[in-house]
Hints:
By secondary structure, the protein is an alpha+beta fold. Helix content is 29%, strand content 42%. It has 2 helices and 5 strands, in the order E-H-E-E-E-E-H. It has helices at residues 14-26, 74-85; strands at residues 4-9, 31-34, 38-45, 48-57, 60-67. A hairpin with a 2-residue loop joins strand 4 and strand 5 (60-67). The chain is globular. The termini are far apart. The relative contact order is 0.25.
Amino acid sequence: xxxxxxxIPYSGDPSAILxxxxxxxxxxxxxxxxxxxxxxxxxxxxxxxxxxxxxxNGSLLNITIFSKPFFVxxxxxxxxxxxxxx
Length: 86
């Protein structure tokens, strides 16, 4: 399975968008570990695990999903995350 890679643009301090990301992951009993430059996360989706990493590059939050249920398309994960943290 290939990774899902996408970027979410933001403005302002990266700590604000990362706080939203942390809240979204932890509200689903997931794990979020990182700082204002990079980190990792894991959350359960339909009894399966979604694992990924992030890094901040300028005004972009770059996300890589390296483990997900095979039946969930990358576009669905991207849409979900954008709706929660944009």
